[in-house]
Every structure is written in C-alpha cells, then in structure tokens.
Automatic annotation (TrEMBL):
SUPFAM superfamilies, per the entry: Flavoproteins
Pfam families registered for this protein in UniProt: Flavodoxin_NdrI (PF07972)
Gene Ontology molecular-function annotations: FMN binding
Higher taxonomy: Bacteria, Bacillati, Actinomycetota, Actinomycetes, Actinomycetales
Role played: Probably involved in ribonucleotide reductase function.
Name the record gives this protein: Protein NrdI
Membership in a protein family: Belongs to the NrdI family.
Length: 138
C-alpha cells in the first residue's frame, strides 16, 4: 500500500486531517531551512489551496519545490485537496492544478478541516485505491 504525502501550514488544518486518517504519512517541510522530503514509494498528495480565491499562488511554494524533484513527482499517484468554499471557482483549485500537471486523478476535495464523513470517505477511498493499484504478492 502507498502512503500519504501532505503539506500543512502553521495552522495545521491539513496535518490534523491527515492524522485522523491513521495512514502512513510524511509532511512536506514548512520552512525552507528544513531538510527536503524525498519519497521512495508511491503516494497520494494532500494539499491545501492558498491564494484566497486567486489562481496565482493557489499551490503552496513548498509543494512546488517538492514536486520540482523528478523522483518525487514521478511517484505521485493522485491528489486530494482542501480549500474554502468562499474561494468560489477557486475552491480546491490547487488539487486541480497539480492533478492536471502530473496527469493523475484529483481524488477528493474537502473544506478546511474536513468533516468526520470526509475522513471516512478518504480513508476508505485510499484503501480501495491502493488495493487496485498495488500488485499482490504471490
């Protein structure tokens, strides 16, 4: 089974959502001075949408830096995004942008911290996704 890679700002909304999933996860560093994250296994990216409703700046700079590493980019199998419905058409647009650039599915959208139903749906969806995409060992 793959893992979850996520970015969370200092507010920690995305981190709290990912922790509720109870799945293996790694955080993209918040600060530029921190050691960069390098992945070696398939993962689904969980990303918040920035920019307050603008397309410019919707994808956090830390996520862009992480995905600029070809090895990290190659192992991404899908994107889940959070956002604020107050952003209108730009709600969860970071996920749309990343999914389009990487050619992977935008698997789920949730608002802010997500609801218990969002957590349940994402957990179940990821378990099914990894069962379908991970070859079984004979």
């Amino acid at each position: 089974m793959g893992s979850v890679v996520y970015f969370s700002s200092a507010t920690g909304n995305t981190r709290r959502f990912v922790e509720k999933l109870g799945l293996p996860a790694a955080r993209i560093p918040l600060l530029p001075k921190d050691e960069p994250l390098r992945v070696t296994d398939d993962y689904v990216l969980v990303v918040p949408t920035y920019g307050g409703g603008n397309l410019k700046g919707a994808v956090p700079k830390q996520v862009i830096k992480f995905l600029n590493n070809p090895e990290n980019r190659a192992l991404c199998r899908g994107v889940i995004s959070s956002g604020n419905t107050n952003f209108g058409k730009a709600y969860c647009i970071a996920g749309d942008i990343i999914a389009a650039k990487l050619g992977v599915p935008h698997m789920y959208k949730f608002e802010l911290l997500g609801t218990p139903e969002d957590v349940s749906r994402v957990r179940e969806g990821l378990e099914q996704f990894w069962q379908k995409t991970t070859p079984t060992q004979a």
